[in-house]
Structure formats: C-alpha cells, structure tokens
Write a structure and sequence with these properties.
This protein is an alpha+beta fold. The protein contains two helices and five strands. About 20% of the residues lie in helices and about 20% in strands. The protein has a five-stranded antiparallel β-sheet, with helices on one face. A hairpin with a 7-residue loop joins strand 2 and strand 3. The relative contact order is 0.22. Bound molecules: guanosine-5'-monophosphate and zinc ion (ZN). The site of guanosine-5'-monophosphate has 12 residues, from strand 2. The site of zinc ion has 5 residues, from helix 1.
Length: about 110
C-alpha cells in the first residue's frame, strides 16, 4: 500500500521513533509546530476518523493512553494539545489516521 505512515511503521521510510507496541507507533513530526510535536498512529491502516467502526474504534482509547504515557516521559507535565485533522477541510494531508501531540510552550487558542 502506498501510504507514508505505513512505510514509516514498517521502517521502509526512516522516522524518529518515540514509542512502539503491538498496536501503535509514535514518532516525531518532520515539520514541528511546537517545541514538542509528535504523531501517534495505529499500526492498522485506518484512513481517517470517518473510517472508524465499532470493530476498530477501540484503538483510539489505547492511543490516548499511549499519548499520556509519552507526554509524561517527555516532561509535558504542564499540558499539551492532541489534534486530529480529518479530511480535506480538516487539513488532513496523510490518509492514515494520526493524532498530533503538541506541547513544550503555552499554545494559543483558537487555532484558526
Ligand atoms: P496532517 O496534516 O495530515 O494532519 O498531518 C500530517 C503530518 O505529517 C504533518 O504535520 C507533517 O509535517 C507530517 N509529515 C509529513 N511527512 C512526514 C515524514 O516523512 N515524516 C514525518 N515524521 N512526518 C511527516
Ligand atoms: Zn497507512
């Protein structure tokens, strides 16, 4: 499958890995938008939030637990932001569902 994040997970394309288990993979974003900016993705290729089903949605809870663990390990005790861009208007550019985690400074809101 011609998917950038599947290739990073398999090691075909190099990525700066932070964490991996049997279900998820976490790596630093190549174009960081905050002092700390990493991505957490399921190893299963799910295109976006719109392709979640009762059968595969359990992974999202696991991803949030992994995010909390990594955030603690990286010293983000003052907080962080989790972002999921879904579809064209949501700004999704890689069609493999992923959660951005941004932190390391106070973040502005709203993001528009
Ligand atoms: P999206 O815009 O789909 O929500 O997020 C895609 C993210 O993937 C962007 O923040 C972009 O910087 C990141 N990205 C794109 N290509 C690569 C790459 O080859 N390696 C890594 N580590 N991140 C990438
Ligand atoms: Zn993929």
């Amino acid at each position: 499958m011609d998917c950038l994040f599947c290739k990073i997970i398999s090691g075909e394309i190099p990525g700066k890995k932070i964490y991996e288990d049997e279900k998820v993979y976490a790596f630093y974003d190549i174009n960081p938008q905050a002092p700390v900016h990493f991505l957490v993705v399921p190893k299963e290729h799910i295109k976006s939030c719109n392709e979640l089903t009762p059968e595969n949605a359990e992974i999202i809870g696991h991803i949030f637990l992994v995010i909390a663990k990594i955030a603690k390990d990286l010293g983000l005790e003052k907080g962080y932001r989790i972002v999921n861009n879904c579809g064209e208007d949501g700004g999704q550019t890689v069609d493999h569902i992923h959660f951005h985690v941004l932190g390391g400074k106070p973040l502005s809101w709203p993001p528009l």
